[in-house]
Amino acid sequence: MEETISIKDIFKTLKKRWKLIMLLTLLAALISGTISYFLLTPVYQSSTQILVNQKQSENQLDSTQIRSNIDMINTYSVIIKSPAILEKVIDELELEQSVEQLSQKITINSQENSQVFSLTVQDSNPSQAVEIANTVSETFQKEIKDIMNVDNVSVLSKAEIKENPTPVKPNPVLNIVIAVVVGLMAGIGLAFLLEYMDNTIKDEDDIERLLDLPLLGSIQKISQHK
User: Fold this and answer.
1) Which of 82, 85, 103, 211 is the most buried (most CB within 10 A)?
2) How far is CA 12 from each of CA 18, 22, 185, 187, rounded to the nearest angstrom?
3) Strand segments (E) across the chain
4) How far apart, in Å, do the first and last CA atoms of the chain sit?
5) Which domain holds residue 124?
């Protein structure tokens, strides 16, 4: 005998277990909010913009040189995060971290066919994020002349500390929304699981479904009065 679940049965299960579903949803949101606001360390971000452009003796654009400058950005991205640059930054700022740890905080972003790329630093201290971003940019601009024997790097914009810096992560609101969705799905799944495992007879419909026999009558519960 095959069992079929109707939409009525689904809504019936949800109505019956709505307290469990809401409890799991609220619990997930509470845990996520607590972790996001009180346990996770906020991370701040600062960026600088760097231009790669060979200084020309004449006021004319050389398309070949521009293409070469764009292609060099990939090489520069590796050099910026190398010990040759970061060791000098660590010494200058007296940072208590290794080259590898500092490198993980730095991200290089470039747009296609653009001679400008951005250097982004993430740190738990907003002031230190600004200092690292500016020092890395300045150190790279100075050292690249000796490393590559070129003078085609300029810092277009420096990182600046904002009056009220806002962390880029964690995002408590997003985390809570995700937790609510996960908690709601878990609650619904658990509700149907409990309903599936519950094989007790609850009403006349269960008798007809399980025994495959028609219901001839029922006895109502009569309350006793004194």
Assistant:
1) 85
2) 10, 16, 17, 15
3) 44-52, 106-110, 116-123, 153-157
4) 47
5) 44-157
pLDDT tops 70 at residue 216: no
Residue 64 shares a structural domain with residue 126: yes
Record the tokens describing residue 218, joined without a space.
């029922």
Q: Is residue 163 part of a domain?
A: no
The pTM score is 0.72
State how far Cα 86 lies from the chain centre.
27
**Is 78 in the same domain as 128?**
yes
Helices (H) and strands (E) in the chain, counts: 8, 4
Asked whether residue 133 falls in the same domain as residue 51, the answer is: yes
> Could you tell me if residue 219 is inside a domain?
no
What domain count does the chain have? Answer: 2
Q: Quickly state the pLDDT bin for 218 (edges 50, 70, 90).
A: low
Residues 181, 110 share a domain: no
How many CB atoms are located within 10 Å of the residue 67 CB?
12
Q: What is the pLDDT of residues 82-102, one digit of tens each?
A: 999 999 999 999 999 999 999
Amino acid at 166: T
> Collapsing DSSP states into helix, strand and coil, what is residue 29?
helix
